[in-house]
Please model this.
Amino acid sequence: MHDLMRDVCLSKAKQEKFLYIADQSNAYQLSTIGRAFRVFVHEFIPLQCIKSPCLRSLLFFDEFLPEENLEKVVPLTMASYFGNHDDEIHNPLVCFVALLICIVLTTELRGIWKYMFNNFNFLRVLDYESGGDAGWKLPNDIGKLIHLRFLRLRGLDFWSSKLPSSLSNLRIDPKHLAHLLLSCENISKLSIDLEIRRLPEYHYLSSNLAYIQLKRCKLEEDPMPTLEKLRYLKMLELHEEAFIGKEMFCSAQGFPKLEPLSLTDLNNLEEWKVGEGAMPSLQRLEIQSCMQLKKLPYGLRFIATLQEVKIG
Model:
């Protein structure tokens, strides 16, 4: 986008309180933005500067606590001493200073997380993927963001990989997923990688879906009777316990456009039936690590377009 047009768009967005882009040049204004619903942080700023209780989206494009800002957190004399003696790993005083630095950093980083989780209660989107140290572990306070719909924490180095149990307070159940999909009328690609147990009913799915990948969904009911009704579906992948039932059935005339089909790590699948006339466009079939599957469906022999079958 041309610089001038970009400036006009940003100015209008700020005027309408649609979004606010924060960096070092305007960090001092963050306490006055009031009812801004979306804040984009392009450079490191103290998160406590943001005072917008109605915040809906918070996106970070810089490290959580860049090295050049450590001196604002760690006392200069402490950092200087450690920097000059960091090769003296057996020196008790150096070890003590290092421990103090870790404690100070952990306290600061934990304070940043807790401020976010306790002051932005209406947050729906939290996206952070720029990397950097993020403290000991994700605080339990994240469970207070009960309105959160999208969470991405990519490239963050937590010193403990244990996730807080309060994550279970956040809503990605089938009812909410169904309403989300209902509002996405024109999507053509859908990838779900989480446990949902039940697939939304057919009428919640976009009729334009051409590619579907399901992983670790642990669907308890056969998904085929729902998915086979998507008349434009060309590619389907069911991987890593996407379905945990024992039987699947593809009925006649189902999956009219499907070309490749991949079934991987469906550990409980014992029987797969394919009706005559199902999947009339299927070209490639891959079955990997479906250890309980007893035999290939008899109905595959009626698919004249099938060119490749891969079983492992």
The chain has a mean pLDDT of 78. Residues 92-119 form the longest helix (28 residues). The helical segments are 3-15, 76-85, 92-119, 174-182, 224-227. The longest strand covers residues 189-193.
